[in-house]
Write a structure and sequence with these properties.
The structure is a homodimer. Helices cover about 30% and strands about 25% of the residues of chain A. Chain A is an alpha/beta fold. Chain A folds into 5 domains: about 90 residues, Ubiquitin-like (UB roll); about 70 residues, Roll (Ubiquitin-like (UB roll)), CATH 3.10.20.880; about 150 residues, Domain of unknown function (DUF4445) (Nucleotidyltransferase, domain 5, 2-Layer Sandwich); about 140 residues, 2-Layer Sandwich (Nucleotidyltransferase, domain 5), CATH 3.30.420; about 100 residues, no CATH class. Chain A has 18 helices and 29 strands. The longest helix of chain A has 25 residues. The two termini of chain A are about 45 Å apart. In chain A, α6 crosses α7 and α13 crosses α18. Chain A has an 11-stranded mixed β-sheet, with helices on both faces. Chain A has a 6-stranded mixed β-sheet with strand order 28-27-18-19-20-29, with helices on both faces. A 4-stranded mixed β-sheet of chain A has the order 8-10-11-9. The interface between A and B is large, with 44 and 45 residues.
Chain lengths: ~600, ~600
Amino acid sequence: MNFTVDFEPIGLRFLCEEPLTISAAACLAGVSLKSECRGRASCGKCKIRVHGSGLSPITQAENEHLSENQLAEGWRLACRTVVSQDVSIYVPVTSRVTAQVFQIDSEIGGVPPTSLVRVLPIKVTPPSLDDQLADLERLAIVLKQEHTIENLWAGLPALKSLRTALREGDWQITVALRGEEVIATYPSSIPTLVGLAVDVGTTKLAFYLVDLSTGQTLATKGVMNPQIAYGEDVMSRLGAAMVDQMNALRLQMEVIQVIDAVAEELCLSRGLTKTHLLDICLVGNTAMHHLLLGLPTRPLAVIPFVPALTAPIGIYADQLGLASAPGAQAYLPPPIAGFIGSDHLAFLLAAGFGEDTRIKLGIDIGTNTEIALQVGEEIVSCSTASGPAFEGAHISHGMRAALGAIERVKISQDGTVHFDVIGDEPALGICGSGILDVLAELRSAGIINLRGRLNPDKPGVRSQNGRLLNFVLVSAIDGRREIMITQEDIDQILLAKGAIRAGIDILMDYLNVSQDDIDEVVIAGAFGTNLDPCNAVRIGLLPNLPVDRVNALGNAAGAGARMMLVSSKARKHAVSLAKKIGYLELTVYPDFNKYFANAVRLPQPLL
Amino acid sequence: MNFTVDFEPIGLRFLCEEPLTISAAACLAGVSLKSECRGRASCGKCKIRVHGSGLSPITQAENEHLSENQLAEGWRLACRTVVSQDVSIYVPVTSRVTAQVFQIDSEIGGVPPTSLVRVLPIKVTPPSLDDQLADLERLAIVLKQEHTIENLWAGLPALKSLRTALREGDWQITVALRGEEVIATYPSSIPTLVGLAVDVGTTKLAFYLVDLSTGQTLATKGVMNPQIAYGEDVMSRLGAAMVDQMNALRLQMEVIQVIDAVAEELCLSRGLTKTHLLDICLVGNTAMHHLLLGLPTRPLAVIPFVPALTAPIGIYADQLGLASAPGAQAYLPPPIAGFIGSDHLAFLLAAGFGEDTRIKLGIDIGTNTEIALQVGEEIVSCSTASGPAFEGAHISHGMRAALGAIERVKISQDGTVHFDVIGDEPALGICGSGILDVLAELRSAGIINLRGRLNPDKPGVRSQNGRLLNFVLVSAIDGRREIMITQEDIDQILLAKGAIRAGIDILMDYLNVSQDDIDEVVIAGAFGTNLDPCNAVRIGLLPNLPVDRVNALGNAAGAGARMMLVSSKARKHAVSLAKKIGYLELTVYPDFNKYFANAVRLPQPLL
């Protein structure tokens, strides 16, 4: 099942594989919609107009927020409308977030495109027996005369394409250049100058097809990382690669094949072919970076976790096995350290780190969570193995933030549970933001104590067959399964939040910062977008800060990747930013265990 | 059947596949032996001492030129000793040519090596949890501190090798650099710094394994071009490539596989592996150049015969499918025009064109013959399709210059034939230099007229079964076949010499030079080495010049390739030389047909 969601007038096409709310689609596609209530349908700010069939029925919340006329015209709330077939969505300016630090948007906020690639229409004199000049030299003369390009050259694949294009185009062609290098030639004009940015995540790959001349994102897609068959986390991937060199090659090839296939799909969705792809920017954690390049990964997996390089690298895409314009390069921004990758750099770039001297905390929550703290001119990052609990994995009824996931939870003192489900569907499980809410609410209601122990005397808490205690969120009705949270789940979540919070506390100690000094917290990732910052503070995931200092950036790594794709200035800035970022190895920090033990605990209730 | 011939004290190893005279082996291996009699065993200058078995018996000529003591010590004449098993040959200084324009020798005359590649032993501090610097950056620090190398970088294959070598070598490695680029790393020291030069001929490939630090040639080999299955000349190869893209790919792959295999063989013969190959220089005609690179060849085969580029190109060897040091490049010097390749450039470089302003004529005789005329600062080259007659092909009893080939011929007025055979064996056929002699002698004896017609009234001339006339060189005795030259053979030879001479005459006309102005004629190729310059003048192949102005250079293209392999200065010089060389298209020259018709005729007898 495949369908497209077009966002207008932005001109962005998003490829979907399963039904989802327009809010979710917008978030994944990188279109920032207003959502003051964070998806609870209470603020009514995410109004959009939608055309197409296969939409979910109008909800009560929409009847309250929209007039009859508006509903008749096709206006809906993005957070309450589920799409499952091709649709076109009109996003009015009033529903878009504009004045944010950074816009995860089709126009990349604040980055005017200064693409490394440019395209010129060229006409040359045809050769004759009196003028047997070679193809490349014939082109060089015109480019020197008309565009003052001095030392024109071309690699082998571009030379082949030039030879064919000149004759097919009857000596009138379109030339794509990177500096003085010919990277592609076409026998006619080309519709758009496009590039591809990919955030290669351990779990998911996020793709962005971008117009290099305007910076506009033309199409996006997210797919699962096929390496997942070798294990869910980075360490099991590295382990698989260590066992057997063939495995390492397979891990590399599977990701490359997926990138190649999705690149083609996105190009085709815009009436282009892969030969139009003129530039590529790939970000990812250091393990993904090394596996993708086929660099030996063993030293990343064993102490002292040393990467092969922390410099940026540009590789001809065909050398990596990626079809594209003949001389197109894949640019991989610098990794920072063994456990801090170029995705973290892209996040910090998108979040404006290094652009001012405010005290800023940046957190990218995932199976591995990277945390950066900026204090004046100094930036220090660390990485912590937080596990997949906040992604809904390894939790009894956990699931990712998809249709049917409980994303908001309220629990009264008497144990009554109120919840919101994505798509207003029957609840199937609970996703990261819901899990975080559950913990905060259980604590507020006094159902768990400071160490997260369920109190068997509280309403809703029970033990089954002598096993550990659990708390029922949704009872089994109409033959659907019961949804509960177990003591084991709570322990998992506390370990995850403890790992993250310990990292934050150690960075603050290392740079001598107290929680009141922090001007801003930026949280990346889908989890950050859905998370209720109040509850993040209530369970102690974040330091005790006013919640208006907390900003969610969505897929900030993907945004940073797009910035580096379209802007040579952004690449330069990112390289100097990377040199500024210090890496702190948490496990050897004095009293690490004490920090961790403290961080696992829940704070005293605030509200 | 494979055996090796070691030339000492030069230290050159030559790999043979069939029995041949030591003179022939020396010539093929690029060792210049004195030979004033041009292989007639009359000058006695090619004395060498040989150790090993499988040598041909001592000849009468050797008994005359060598004392009993010398014979007992193993002294022989190189032109009379055939080797067929592993031997070691001592070449005394007195037997070597030293004061020539250019030395086709293990030390490349006048070119001090200024290799682009250098090798450094490096020791780095091992990483630890307190020092997690990446591999490349760790190396960069030491290279900056100890060798003032500023912006160290590495391509992907070299990065992989670095990662492994650092750990295998326990943080003490050998690093090979091209400028600021790491091209290879070894976990221990390496015995020799080697590169490979290849002259990719239409018929034959000549290989030279060279020590990049001394310029010394370490091993050589010649093998047939496997593309010969697609046709003997350049045009049939281009035709095959045009018919079918798969053919073009096959033509490319077959040559690459041969280069790869011989590279390995030569490396192994010196106790090295291909990972030690740090640089490669490939020369060849423009068709070979394009086929090797996989560039579309159609425009080379049709008017106006335009090449893809006339710039030099450096390609990572692994991109071409050649195994070598991870970051080694294959350097392909610039082709001059569609029918003038980088082999011609290499020849002119080796022959010192562009180094003085004398009037010099350079001729490389082959199926296609390239001719260059230098007058002052000006150099003009042309190409002419002379066919394979001078290589012994398409001649009734023609053969190449191998064991059993008639290489010298004398014919008396009465038709009696005297001849010399390579290796003093029974005659099997006649090679290029013999064919040229036959023509000159038949003319002197008045057996053929100005137009090459055999006179049926002259002794030795006969007609068989009403067919065209022929002249018997060797009668059928002892059951061996008769060897003769037919009227058709003579016509073939006259067309070949006409094509070459017309080219020379047109260049002289174009640059306004008369034959007396010419200071020097340099002839490249094996044919040039065996040819009797007197007879070349007598049949009108060359203008009427004193024969001491004629010099043979052997495989000059291979020599030029070696110069460009070991010397960055030679590369620069060759590129500026290439820009100087004008190309003259003969077929559109005014009165071309008249020049050709004149050139086909034989001159009046001189002697």
